[in-house]
Specification:
GO molecular function: ATP binding; ATP hydrolysis activity; ATP-dependent protein folding chaperone; unfolded protein binding
CATH topology of the largest domain: Heat Shock Protein 90
Keywords: ATP-binding, Chaperone, Nucleotide-binding
Mean pLDDT: 89
Protein name: HSP90 family protein
Pfam families: HATPase_c_3, HSP90
Bound molecules: adenosine-5'-triphosphate
Helix content: 40-55%
Number of helices: 20
CATH architecture of the largest domain: 2-Layer Sandwich
Low-confidence stretches: none
Number of domains: 4
Shape: elongated
Family: Belongs to the heat shock protein 90 family.
Distance between the termini: 123 Å
Length: about 600
């Protein structure tokens, strides 16, 4: 067998692969050109630093990049970086995947943006011809390399082509992509990607050079007044995101060479919605939509960060998922939690505002995340029978928390519960039941359970036996009328006295009620099946508890049996259903109607 042969690379195929599968848009060519120039300047500086005594040729240049539109619609990008020798041109420009930016072990070198050895080829997405003229800081004549999209190239020594050390790359327009090279488009692209680069980039115009880079990242600009800095950063974010954040926090992860700011969104976002983070890699914009930078729960934060050590994917449009990224995610999560803790200590008003906006998302997270649960427990006001307050305050000194599962149940029972000395929480809003059930994670001795209204009814004061006996006639009529409505009467004395009657559905009655409703709604086939579940047990029926403290009840209770008393019982039943926000069945509606008309008729007849 003879020695190995070299792979042939079909350049067209590679360029198609780039434009159709790797990069989302041809516009990345602008980034790649600027990136190579920046790396070349860094390499030249490194060379000078390593060998300061060498001859003048090695001395670093000013370190700048110039972009020059050409009369034919092409563009020229020049740098005063390290340049390329004739042999380097052969090795690095004409072979796909070779790069000067990896060390002997093939690791990306920290000082450079590039690492893959493919970037320059992206220029073939917009131009059929790439010309590179270069003079190396290492000595030797200037060289010219011309590569074509058909996969051919040629190299020549042309010492007159370039006097200064550095490199000039020229692209020629192609009819279908000439717009990418137009000065406005190109300067916009370069500014978009490279505006934070520490190397000055200028665009040559008729009126002289125009700077395309900013002095420093917004968060790195020193300001003596912290409040001024805060306002400046909020202005910056407003321009970036189109909305003014409600707050911000500085972010730093030294292990990843990361600095930046997290902005707190001013309006609710859906939990689980991630992304939208702006990430710079060594000051070059990587993406405006990074999605794995923060833990999932931190959906209310949008970041702008610069990192020198996180890795890009080959397209350089996203962060590569590796151990460092997961460490960064964790660290940023801790910083956000710390921010929340500090807010709770030093700026409770700001925390309250934060929770007012993001409570739904925070609650969604509290179902799975203890840190968020703690936050909800300590700071989010809940509706309770003792007024609005955070759960932590509500449960102080209590061993059990009792909650209602629906808002209606809470509305119907809160005043009665508080009059009876029982404290209940409204667990009827989104995620509340789950959050309440998880509270024992914060306090293992705590018991949490749903309110059984019949328990509450049992605590209401009964009437003394002789008094109750005197009401036998009234109770008899009531029992009769209510039996048709699936309910049993009770008389108790309770507060508040303006509640004439209370409709109480015990846990067991609720379940039975559900079965009956299903039966009522079902068609014939199903109703016969539901009927098979058997007759309701008397004990499980809802109760209508009359309040003996209410003056009207005392009067009605002494009314002789007859149609008026029946209507009065039906009317009190309907009123209790409505006041407790219980659903009305057809029979309930009919009873209400009947009683209303009956009582009206009687009122006017007696007139
Ligand atoms: N302006 C320049 N000055 C000096 N050398 C350059 C310049 N542009 C390209 N090169 C050389 O060409 C090589 C290949 O460049 P290319 O852009 O294809 O890949 P890269 O920058 O090494 O990596 P990446 O694919 O990550 O961008 C570089 O490693 C560098 O040696």
């Amino acid at each position: 067998m003879t020695g190995g042969q070299h792979f042939q690379v079909n350049l067209r195929g590679i360029v198609d692969l780039f434009s159709q599968h790797l990069y989302t848009s041809p516009r990345v060519f602008a980034r790649e050109l600027v990136q190579n120039a920046t790396d070349a300047i860094a390499a030249r500086r490194a060379l000078t630093a390593a060998d300061p005594g060498a001859d003048g040729a090695v001395t670093a240049g000013a370190g700048e990049i110039r972009i020059e539109p050409l009369p034919d619609g092409g563009v020229r990008v020049s740098d005063d970086g390290i340049g390329l020798t004739e042999s380097e041109v052969h090795t690095f420009l004409a072979s796909v995947g070779s790069t000067t930016k990896r060390d002997e072990l093939g690791f990306a070198r920290q000082d450079f943006l590039g690492q893959f050895g493919i970037g320059l080829l992206s220029c073939f997405m917009v131009s059929d011809l790439i010309e590179v003229v270069s003079r190396s800081a290492k000595g030797g004549p200037a060289v010219r390399w011309v590569g074509r999209a058909d996969g051919t190239y040629h190299t020549e020594v042309d010492d007159a082509a370039r006097a200064a050390i550095g490199t000039t790359v020229t692209l020629r327009p192609r009819p279908d992509s000439a717009h990418w090279l137009a000065p406005e488009q190109l300067s916009e692209l370069v500014h978009h990607y490279a505006h934070l680069l520490p190397v000055p980039i200028t665009l040559a115009t008729e009126d002289g050079p125009v700077a395309l880079t900013d002095p420093a990242p917004a968060w790195a600009i020193e300001r003596s007044d912290p409040n001024h800095r805060r306002q400046q950063l909020l202005d910056y974010a407003e321009e970036l995101f189109g909305v003014r954040p409600m707050d911000l926090l500085d972010l730093r992860v030294p292990e990843a060479g990361l600095t930046g700011v997290g902005f707190i969104l001013p309006s609710p976002s859906t939990a689980g919605q991630r992304g939208g983070h702006r990430v710079y890699l060594k000051r070059m914009l990587l993406t405006e939509d990074a999605d794995r930078l923060l833990p999932e729960w931190a959906f209310f934060v949008r970041c702008v960060v610069d990192t020198s050590l996180l890795r890009p994917t080959a397209s350089r449009e996203a962060l590569y998922e590796d151990d460092l990224l997961s460490a960064v995610r964790q660290s940023l999560g801790e910083q956000i939690q710390q921010w929340l803790r500090e807010l709770s200590v030093h700026h409770p008003a700001r925390l309250a505002e934060f929770l007012r906006v993001h409570h739904l998302g925070v609650k969604a997270l509290a179902r799975h995340d203890d840190e968020m649960l703690r936050l909800v427990d300590a700071w989010l006001p809940y509706e309770t029978s003792r007024g609005p307050m955070p759960l932590r305050d509500f449960r102080q000194g209590a061993s059990t928390i009792v909650y209602t599962e629906t808002v209606d149940e809470f509305r119907g029972l809160a005043t009665i519960a508080s009059a009876a000395g029982a404290a209940i929480v409204n667990g009827g809003y989104a995620y509340d039941t789950e959050i309440l059930q998880r509270l024992p994670r914060l306090d293992p001795s705590l018991r949490v359970r749903r309110l059984d209204p019949s328990e509450l009814a049992a605590t209401l004061e009964p009437l003394p036996e002789p008094q109750l006996a005197a009401l036998a006639g009234f109770l008899d009529t009531a029992r009769h009328v209510l039996a048709e409505l699936g309910c049993v009467p009770q008389v108790r004395q309770f507060h508040p006295i303006n509640v004439p009657a209370l409709y109480v559905v015990s846990q067991a009655a609720r379940e039975q009620d559900l079965r009956q409703r299903n039966q009522a709604d079902a068609d014939d086939l199903w109703s016969s099946i539901f009927a098979g579940f058997g007759e309701p047990e008397t004990d499980d029926r809802p109760e209508l508890v009359f309040n003996w403290r209410h003056p009207l009840i005392r009067r009605i209770a002494t009314e002789p049996p007859g149609p008026t008393l029946r209507h009065a019982v039906e009317a009190l039943y309907g009123q209790a259903l409505l006041a407790g926000h219980h659903p009305l069945r057809a029979v309930d509606g009919a009873a209400l109607n009947r009683s209303f008309l009956g009582l009206l008729e009687r009122a006017f007849a007696s007139d």
